Amino acid sequence: MKSAALASEFVALAEVAVGPPVSLGAGPLGERRIVPILGGHIAGPRLVGEVLPGGADFQLIRPDGVAEIEARYTLRLADGALVQVTNRGLRHAAPEDMARLLRGEPVPPERVYFRTAPAFETAAPAHLWLTRGLFVGLGERRPDAVLIRVFAV
């Protein structure tokens, strides 16, 4: 059987301002961290709006150096609709690059694997399409922001 290639459509670029991480310390599964989401914006051919302050990225830095992330935040779209986002993913790189990222230092994005699977929830009829598909995010960590390129698959 011949398999089809996975097609994707660019939805938007989210630029999310983040605060300094709060470490809960190292536990048996790794270091737990909370990264506050301060705000931002999202813009692209299918979504335009702002990232509201008040969300957070809950991270587990595993002993193998992989960061498991689960970011939860809310979008206010240009038409006023509210959209809840839960964005789970993985981020990893060479140990020296991960150490730099965890210290808040810049690392070229091509040296970091950062992929997410955003899920959306909304009551707005015009945006229910967000609840009926699967999405993939390509992430980039900057010292004070996270960029996520969102694609529908």
TrEMBL record:
<comment type="similarity">
    <text>Belongs to the UPF0311 family.</text>
</comment>
<protein>
    <recommendedName>
        <fullName>UPF0311 protein JJQ90_05765</fullName>
    </recommendedName>
</protein>
<dbReference type="Pfam" id="PF11578">
    <property type="entry name" value="DUF3237"/>
</dbReference>
<dbReference type="InterPro" id="IPR020915">
    <property type="entry name" value="UPF0311"/>
</dbReference>
